[in-house]
Amino acid sequence: MPLAFLTSLYFEGYPRWLPEPWRLLKATTAISTIALTKWYTSGRPNPAERNMHGRVVLITGGTSGIGAATAYELAQRGAQVVLLTRLPPTDAFLAEYVDDLRARTGNHMVYAEQVDLADLHSVRQFATRWIDNAPPRRLDMIVLCAATMVPPGGKRVETEEGVEVTWMVNFLANFHLLGILSPAIRAQPFDRDVRIVVPTCSSYIASPRLDVEIQEKEWTPQTAYARSKLALMVFAKAYQKHLDAYKRPDQLPMTARVVLVDPGLARTPGMRRWLTRGSLWGLLVYVVLYFFAWLFLKSPTMAAQSLLFAAMESSLVRLPGGRLFKECMEVDCARKDVDDEEVAKKLWEASDKLIERVEKQQAVKRARAKKEQEKSEEEAKKAAQVDEIESLVGAITRGKAKAAKETQKKNGKRGKAAGSSTNSYKLRRPPFSILSGPHASPVAHGYVYQDAPRGDGKSAGPRL
Ligand SMILES: NC(=O)c1ccc[n+]([C@@H]2O[C@H](COP(=O)([O-])OP(=O)(O)OC[C@H]3O[C@@H](n4cnc5c(N)ncnc54)[C@H](OP(=O)(O)O)[C@@H]3O)[C@@H](O)[C@H]2O)c1
């Protein structure tokens, strides 16, 4: 075919149906440039493979973007995936998502557990439940994909516990989770290749120093996000040292590895929220310019490739932990303070103090709320009892009134029949209607029934 075309080109000249040569050249150059750019920005596919059957993976952020793609790939390879989600597993959308993930991967070992990373108590509840298990539960991997970012121009937001939300979700919750899960990680057998995969972002390079607090007026969503990612990296490296320092009872070395991963920029819901500033107008612009987002940003699946490499590359267990990977290759950290032990120590101590303070405050709040709830429940119970007694007494009263009426009627008839006065059989007690007033409780007012003993005039209470 190409030969026939070239021959006709030679003998018959340039065919009319083809566009002008220079136009053709332009179009070819444009298409090749787009194709090359797309190929380059898509990143490198993961070259590592591993059978994940039987491996237990905890993953945060597994419901969206890069985390969802990672959870899918791991589930497809047979891993038991536990999604740590903000919503409870009973939530209809989450249940559907889990069902869908099971169906698409053909893996029924996909579960969800509620862990709201914006809530230290929720993190503690999950992690303590996990480590309280005896014998220790199998744990092969923790993938920390959850993250949040306030859209540009947005205001500083605090969680209900009073911690800035970006710091809380992106750093402090992970610090807290790994802190509590540390015994569970260290208790794994020597031959279990445990990985802690920590996604970061190149924005950490522009972060302000960790030992300098961001003042409220200097706070921007970008600096908060960058600072949280820098803190996470510093902590991840320190956590590896913490694991390495552990002396196993069997005297064998620790094989758990912390792996830092920069997935690159991707078209995820989080990125879209950031690009559109969380506004409808922004979304409209995003849709119109979607071609550029497609061209320059990776798909979530391609962004997950470096995470999958960190999860499955077998050589990593033989290398020291705390390394940074990008495009499935090891890269150097661009900041020296990531490896600074003094910075790490200060961060660790400050985070511990912050968690202790917040947890104490929250515990007091919860205890107070519980007391108040118990009090209001007690009051509601008492009110219900009073209501019940009143309705019982009412029923008895009505019954007695009815009976009295009937007796009266009978007596009237008898009186008539005997030719005597109608008032000859009068009731000695006041009418029962006094019970129907606003304070009608016969218990409270010592109301004496007609058939109660009457010797000293004191009430003996209702006879029910
Ligand atoms: N996208 C990028 O371009 C890019 C670039 C560099 C690094 N990264 C990093 O890659 C990771 C994944 O990013 P992504 O863009 O895929 O994220 P994303 O689409 O924004 O998804 C964030 C995930 O975090 C979860 N999450 C947020 N707040 C939570 C909370 N309070 N409790 C529990 N879960 C919570 C979300 O759960 P819900 O579904 O319930 O909201 C969601 O599953 C992040 O660590 C991010 O920093 C991303």
Automatic annotation (TrEMBL):
The keyword Chaperone does not apply. It holds the Pfam family adh_short. Residues 55-193 form the Ketoreductase domain. Residues 400-464 are annotated as: Disordered. Residues 355-388 form a coiled coil. Keywords: Coiled coil, Membrane, Oxidoreductase, Transmembrane, Transmembrane helix. GO terms for molecular function: oxidoreductase activity. InterPro entries: KR_dom, NAD(P)-bd_dom_sf, SDR_fam. The chain crosses the membrane at residues 280-297. Belongs to the short-chain dehydrogenases/reductases (SDR) family. PANTHER family: RETINOL DEHYDROGENASE, RETINOL DEHYDROGENASE 14. This is Ketoreductase domain-containing protein.
